[in-house]
Design brief:
This protein has 408 residues and is α/β, with parallel strands linked by helices. It contains 13 helices and 13 strands.
């Protein structure tokens, strides 16, 4: 491995002073980024290579001018970067990430150096995976950044149109009706009693404070990972993953009782666990929207929740189907009537099951706009036409703004 450019550092402290949280934040974009590994890798589930992790750390240090000058000069002059002090320091950083539970490292293949032995640690074909701790960290940091852009510091739970008396106070007052829980507002009730006299008090003079009924929700996030998500000089997949991580963190930590699952759709569709989400990649795939919707329905059927919804993030038209015999029918040219009819059939199935589909479209082709609007109309969902730069704000605002107050 060689350094890419000549930069001289003004960083005064030792590299040992960089704590693991700061290091994870420094390499966050590289880890989540769509080009962190080869999207044509035949085994995308195998984790990321240690050499890529080393390169990400090196680049982060250089971009921030954090490498001591003498160490940088030595690395630039050396013919064997693996033997330099800089590489040794990077190995120590990787070991700290491992010791503190941010990454798991596969055992080195035969002939490779074990971590902590020699100067370079695992390299080459050795792989690392993110842990639950690192996923939580990345989700929190992304959520903080997105909420900062929204001007919000926190988000509450879902609020529905249904009110009850006895769940959580809203501050709104109403006359007592038979069947209400007696959350009596003493001040207002006493005022009515004094005005009318105790002998003239009626049921309607009792005043209660209303409460909101807060529902639980099951959410499936459908991420389009067809190859168009990184074509045309624009990376749309990385922002989509960042939003999914932030949404997962918010639901898991602020919405008790909610569930969230993730589905990737490409030529086919697959569920991806949260632990793998940050490192999944796009590929040379078509867009099997119907397959993604079918899998999302199967996941939601297992959930006993008041609200069920699909959050679909995509940039392209449906262009593939899984046929009954397992073969994949593909047509990337135009809106194929067969593909469209089967896709809308799955949308209709969602409607019958009470599943709302909210679509976040990263393109503005007229045919796509018509398709997305049709999906929204059929499931009483919403359609947002966004960009990679504002999709986070749209997704989070849609999620936290389900607060509609109607007095029954």
């Amino acid at each position: 491995m060689a350094t890419r450019s000549t930069r001289y550092s003004k960083y005064e402290s030792s590299l040992d002073d960089i704590d693991t949280s700061s290091l994870m934040e420094m390499i966050r974009d590289s880890i989540i980024g769509s080009n962190f590994n080869d999207p044509y890798d035949p085994d995308p589930n195998a984790g990321q290579s240690m050499d890529e992790l080393r390169e990400a750390i090196l680049q982060a240090l250089m971009e921030r001018d954090m490498i001591p000058e003498d160490m940088l000069r030595e690395a630039q002059k050396s013919k064997n970067f693996d033997q330099t002090r800089l590489n040794q320091e990077i190995s120590k950083m990787i070991q700290r990430l491992r010791d503190e539970g941010f990454i798991r490292v596969d055992d080195p293949q035969p002939g490779q150096t074990a971590q902590g032995e020699g100067t370079s640690g695992p390299s080459g074909d050795a792989k690392f995976e993110l842990t639950q701790k690192s996923i939580d960290f990345l989700g929190y940091k992304t959520l903080r950044d997105l909420l900062g852009g929204l001007g919000k510091s926190s988000a509450g739970r879902h609020d529905t149109r249904e009110y009850s008396s006895g769940v959580e106070m809203t501050g709104d007052l109403k006359e007592y009706e038979f069947g209400d829980t007696m959350n009596m507002d003493i001040s207002s009730t006493l005022t009515n009693t004094v005005v009318k006299g105790l002998e003239n008090i009626e049921e309607s003079d009792i005043v209660i404070r209303q409460s909101e009924y807060q529902s639980s929700a099951a959410t499936v996030v459908m991420l389009d990972c067809s190859h168009s998500m990184i074509l045309y000089g624009e990376d749309r997949f990385t922002p989509a993953k960042q939003v999914a991580l932030a949404l997962a963190h918010m639901i898991r930590h602020q919405y008790a009782g909610d569930t969230i699952k993730f589905v990737l759709f490409h030529d086919t569709a697959e569920q991806v666990p949260l632990e793998r989400l940050a490192q999944v990649q796009v590929g040379p795939y078509h867009t099997n929207t119907a397959g993604g919707l079918r899998l999302a329905q199967q996941l939601l059927k297992r959930e006993n929740k008041d609200m069920k919804q699909i959050v679909m993030i995509t940039d392209g038209k449906p262009s593939a189907l899984t046929l009954p015999d397992g073969r994949i029918y593909k047509n990337a040219w135009g809106l194929d009537p067969f593909v469209m009819s089967e896709t809308l059939r799955e949308v209709a199935m969602c409607r019958r099951q009470g599943i709302q589909i909210n679509t976040f479209m990263l393109a503005r082709d007229p045919d796509l706009i018509a398709f997305v609007k049709k999906v929204s109309e059929m499931t009483h969902g919403k359609a947002y036409f966004t960009t990679p730069y504002n999709i986070g704000q749209y997704v989070l605002m849609d999620f936290v703004n389900k607060r509609v107050k109607t007095v029954n």
